């Protein structure tokens, strides 16, 4: 069976140099973080980058953690966001209200833990996609730590049941990607895994994209 192309999201673009680099990559989505984080940026910064960089057909994802609707609306009014990523402990009601107000697709992050599938089921029919990330104490994401990938098929099956994509995040890099690809995630989200010394790195990005292309060419 011919599988669809794996979507790539490069997240945590915290500088103009990072943004310029990922904008010239094969990524489908570029993520910018508007929450407290070592990779946090302001919507105004991203707006300035966009005056100097053409992202072409790439889609811009705004990442928020338990943000007020006003914060999300502010970013969405300034920037051509394609997706709102809710990366905290947002309730179903929060997410529904954000979607109603900003009228953009919502991706809900589920942090892998014992009851994650039950949490995922609560959002059935309310979101446009899921991202599964590692749960690391004191961090919402970008930790560079993997979760137990043996649970990935369960997450993918639940997302398929809901009719939405499920993107896998959490500690993915050019060394462990070969173990993830055979699980056939529709999307892969990488932040620290494309960095060297905290900066996005062209060589690592190239290695990741080569692996994805090689895998796709052997399975399609």
Spatial gap, N to C terminus: 7 Å
Spatial strand order of the main sheet: 1-2-3-4-5-6-7-8
**Which topology does CATH recognise?**
TIM Barrel
Which geometry do the CA atoms define?
globular
Are there runs of 5+ residues with pLDDT below 50, and where?
Answer: none
SS-based structural class?
alpha/beta
CATH class: Alpha Beta
Number of helices: 8
Q: What can be said about the biggest beta sheet?
A: 8 strands, parallel, barrel
The CATH superfamily label reads Aldolase class I
Q: Please give the CATH architecture.
A: Alpha-Beta Barrel
Whole-number total of structural domains: 1
The percentage helix is 25-40%
Strand count: 10
Radius of gyration equals: 16 Å
Task: Annotate the secondary structure layout.
Layout: E1 7-10, H1 16-23, E2 29-33, H2 43-52, E3 59-64, H3 69-78, E4 81-86, H4 92-102, E5 106-111, H5 116-122, E6 129-133, H6 152-162, E7 166-168, H7 177-180, E8 187-190, E9 195-196, E10 199-200, H8 202-219
Parallel strand pairs: 1-2, 1-8, 2-3, 3-4, 4-5, 5-6, 6-7, 7-8
Antiparallel strand pairs: 9-10
If you had to describe this structure to a student in words, what would you say it looks like?
By secondary structure, the chain is α/β, with parallel strands linked by helices. It has a single domain (7-219), classed as Alpha-Beta Barrel (TIM Barrel). The protein is 36% helix and 20% strand. The protein has an 8-stranded parallel barrel with strand order 1-2-3-4-5-6-7-8, surrounded by 5 helices. α3 (69-78) packs parallel to α4. The radius of gyration is 16 Å and the shape is globular.
């Amino acid at each position: 069976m011919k599988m669809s192309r794996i979507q790539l999201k490069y997240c945590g673009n915290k500088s103009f140099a990072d943004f310029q680099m990922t904008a010239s990559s094969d990524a489908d989505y570029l993520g910018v973080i508007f929450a407290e984080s070592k990779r946090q940026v302001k919507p105004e910064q991203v707006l300035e980058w966009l005056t100097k960089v053409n992202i072409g057909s790439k889609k811009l994802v705004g990442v928020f953690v338990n943000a007020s609707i006003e914060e999300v609306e502010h970013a969405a009014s300034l920037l051509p966001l394609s997706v709102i990523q809710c990366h905290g402990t947002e309730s179903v009601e929060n997410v529904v209200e954000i979607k109603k107000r900003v009228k953009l697709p919502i991706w809900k992050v589920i942090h892998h833990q014992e009851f994650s599938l039950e949490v995922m089921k609560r959002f059935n029919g309310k979101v446009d996609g899921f991202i599964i990330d590692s749960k690391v104490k004191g961090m919402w994401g970008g930790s560079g730590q993997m979760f137990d990938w043996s649970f990935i098929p369960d997450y993918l099956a639940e997302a398929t049941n809901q009719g939405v994509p499920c993107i896998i995040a959490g500690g993915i890099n050019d060394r462990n990607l070969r173990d993830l690809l055979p699980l056939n995630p529709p999307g892969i989200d990488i932040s620290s895994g494309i960095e060297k010394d905290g900066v996005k790195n062209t060589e690592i990005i190239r290695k990741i994209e080569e692996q994805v292309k090689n895998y796709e060419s052997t399975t399609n």
